[in-house]
Write a structure and sequence with these properties.
globular, 2 domains, alpha/beta, Aldehyde Dehydrogenase, Chain A, domain 2
């Protein structure tokens, strides 16, 4: 099977993509009802391919990042993809079943029946990011395939080696009328977002999402946007500081903090600041006795993002703000050869106007704010754009309820970070600036399905019985009187 070749000019790109979309849509219509067996077959094929291509994907991601641990790729990209696909395969027969819905009185008594049937949308587009370039293709694709759709993919240009492995893998196991992939730079992404797809999912930056949504709007393409934002971590006075920082720093150092759900800043009781700093240093040292020459510590993906992150630190230093790099082996990070590693760095009590507090970090930097009264944390979170996640550490039930009920975020974890994204039976998505729509599990199936409302009328003349049939008279007035009352 041959994947469509990405051409050189923007005009050719658009033409080739439109042709691929037309071919997928025509083949989808030709297929008719997409059976559970067909959906499972398409899922099984890619599960098998992921297992066979695991080593190639690991090598490609290590090359793209200049240092990306094998274990991280297998756990968070390959393994997470297979988990999502297996979950969809296991449950899709149940998800496909229609739902009976109540019918309004008196039509229900006269034999009228209402139900919902879930139909494939047709062709779903997926624009995936560079930080998890495998799982951010196949996690949403699991829902799209389970729902019976065809799929078109645009992977990130920032992980070109991985994109090429994905292209080879997809073209081996799928006819391009089933799943097609288009690699390339921004011009390919722009053309892709202009396509008249049946649904478009984008994972990436909020700033880019605005352009994606505007392009999709021209064709009235519904979108799911998985973005990010500054996910806060509240540490309560009731929290076990050492245990909490162990979990927080695991989340912050995984993939060097290049995770949309990574903890973005801490909010700690002012008297606990030094204890929190010491616990963070201890946690990092236990996981990474050394960093620079440690293949298990991920590099920042490229020079552009390295300069962005080091720029945040330079701004802090210029403003006289103390930064605390956690560098257990005392390595010289200025002498790197071919990598862009940055040690986990704490920024205690930064001024509000520093970029590290204003912009999504997407790296191993961690500002720490302090508070006196717990109510300050709720007020601060609510004054900021709504984040993709909020995290609370502690055992105070009233505080937990306050964070849960009085703040708005895409998701929430209590006494951990990030772990909610691993739950296939929980919808994953943002709210406001952190995203729109959700997927995973049943919600993914429904996001990529059309819920068709179906009403079956009784054989009786309902129009006459209800007074809806002209000429209107006493029966009509009785029906109106029944409806127009308190």
């Amino acid at each position: 099977m041959n994947a469509p070749q990405t051409p050189n000019t923007s005009l050719d790109v658009e033409t080739v993509m439109l042709d691929a979309l037309a071919a997928q849509r025509a083949d989808y219509l030709r297929e008719g009802v997409v059976t559970a067996e067909s959906r499972i077959d398409r899922i099984d094929r890619v599960i098998d391919a992921l297992v066979r291509y695991a080593d190639q994907l690991t090598e490609a991601l290590n090359s793209d990042f200049s240092c990306r641990p094998r274990e991280v790729t297998l756990l968070t990209d390959v393994g997470a993809s297979i988990t999502a696909l297996k979950h969809a395969k296991k449950h899709l027969r149940r998800w496909m079943k229609g739902e009976k819905r109540p019918t309004i009185f008196p039509l229900n008594l006269l034999g009228g029946r209402s139900r919902i049937e879930y139909q494939p949308l047709g062709v779903v587009g997926i624009i995936s990011p560079w930080n998890f370039p495998v799982s951010m293709v196949f996690a949403p694709m699991s829902g799209a395939l389970a729902a019976g759709n065809r799929v078109m993919i645009k992977p990130s240009e920032f992980t070109p080696a991985t994109s090429e492995v994905l292209r080879a893998m997809i073209s081996e196991v799928y006819d391009p009328k089933e799943v097609a992939i288009f690699t390339g730079g921004p011009e390919v992404g722009q053309a892709f977002s202009n396509l008249p797809l049946d649904h478009l999912l984008f994972t990436g930056a909020t700033s880019v999402a605005r352009h994606i949504m505007a392009a999709a709007a021209r064709n009235l393409v519904p979108v799911t946007l998985e973005l990010g934002g500054k996910s806060p971590v509240i540490i309560s006075r009731s929290a076990d500081i050492e245990k909490s920082l162990g979990r927080i720093m695991l989340g912050k150092t995984l993939n060097a903090g290049q995770i949309c759900l990574a903890p973005d800043y801490l909010m700690v009781p002012e008297e606990k600041l030094h204890e929190v700093i010491a616990a963070a240093q201890k946690a990092v040292a236990s996981m990474y006795p050394k960093l620079l020459d440690n293949p298990q510590y991920t590099s920042v993906v490229n020079e552009r993002h390295y300069q962005r992150l080091t720029g945040y630190l330079a701004e802090a230093e210029e403003r006289g703000v103390k930064t605390l790099p956690i560098n257990p082996a005392g390595e010289d990070f200025s002498q790197q050869q071919g990598t862009h590693k940055i040690p986990p760095t704490l920024v205690p009590e930064p001024p509000e106007d520093l970029k590290v507090l204003q912009e999504e970090i997407f790296g191993p930097l961690l500002p720490i704010r302090t508070y006196r009264d717990f109510e300050e944390t709720i007020a601060y979170i609510n004054a900021m754009p709504r984040p993709l996640a909020a995290y609370y550490f502690g055992e105070d039930a009233a505080e937990q309820e306050a964070v849960q009920a009085r703040t708005t975020s895409g998701g929430m974890c209590i006494n951990d970070v990030i772990m909610h994204v691993m739950q296939e039976d929980l919808p994953f998505g943002g709210v406001g600036p952190s995203g729109m729509g959700s997927y995973h599990g049943l919600e993914g199936f429904r996001t990529f399905s059309h819920a068709k409302s179906i009403y079956r009328q009784t054989g009786l003349n309902i129009g006459k019985l209800s007074g809806m049939l002209p000429p209107y008279g006493k029966t009509t007035e009785k029906s109106i009187a029944m409806q127009v009352k308190k």
